[in-house]
Design goal:
By secondary structure, the chain is an alpha+beta fold. The chain has 3 helices and 6 strands. The protein has helices spanning 3-6, 9-26, 37-49, and strands at 31-34, 53-58, 65-67, 71-73, 76-78, 81-84.
Length: 93
Amino acid sequence: DIGGFLYEPAIFQKIVDIFADRYAEIGVDVIAGLDARGFVLGPPIALKLGKPFVMMRKKGKMPNSISSDDYQTEYGSRSGLTVQRDKIKEGDR
């Protein structure tokens, strides 16, 4: 549950800083966030890095999108994820 640190601005900021520092070191072009926690964490990380943010959603939730194959998690089988076609370019990291 991410509710605990979202209530504490200093802790939330520290988490964003840790992620942003990590991704700045490896060099990324786009920050993608998975439905729904990624929608909370991804945008502030993207803003700090000056990079675009892209939402990744469950199949059927996003227009003009491409989908991944189904995948497995610790909770079982999941439908693939989608991302809008024009948001990630070939070669983007």
